[in-house]
Amino acid sequence: xxxxxxxxxxxxxxxxxxxxxxxxxxxxxxxxxxxxxxxxxxxxxxxxxxxxxxxxxxxxxxxxxxxxxxxxxxxxxxxxxxxxxxxxxxxxxxxxxxxxxxxxxxxxxxxxxxxxxxxxxxxxxxxxxxxxxxxxxxxxxxxxxxxxxxxxxxxxxxxxxxxxxxxxx
Length: 169
Ligand code: GNR
Ligand code: NI
Known about the structure:
Blueprint: H1 26-41, E1 46-48, E2 58-61, E3 71-82, E4 85-89, E5 99-103, E6 106-112, E7 118-124, H2 126-138, H3 149-168
Antiparallel strand pairs: 1-2, 2-3, 3-6, 4-5, 6-7
This protein binds ligand GNR and nickel (II) ion.
């Protein structure tokens, strides 16, 4: 397993729409392992393959306290969504940026596991936020896309400033 490097905004590859996985082989298992390792190394709660420049519909998440409840979803689809919640989101592709985003409170998701077995999970609260955030990445969408143009430009200026400071520090 390896820690992969994570694409950062405004890398245009983050806008790629990922294609479904058709072959559930050892190579897919390797990718899922690398995604877990990369997510844990970065202290993230989720990671989409898109973020490591692999454009297949694969995501991982682990929102547990002890970081021992990994979930890998392949070809995820939302079957049902209910309610709404506002949650302060961050993204490993936008280091240091946080913003409130409104999403469904509960989602029912159908996906496959790493062995190709179908699974249906119902999640709510923070884990539902995370899965919706990761599924957006697979469609080339990022959390700042939900913000008003004014809020987005303010945040992106802040990101720019942080980067310039980091470069001269
Ligand atoms: O690590 C992450 N934290 C997070 C916090 C609130 C809402 C969503 C997330 S996902 C993010 C990791 C990431 O960028 N996944 O794509
Ligand atoms: Ni993200």
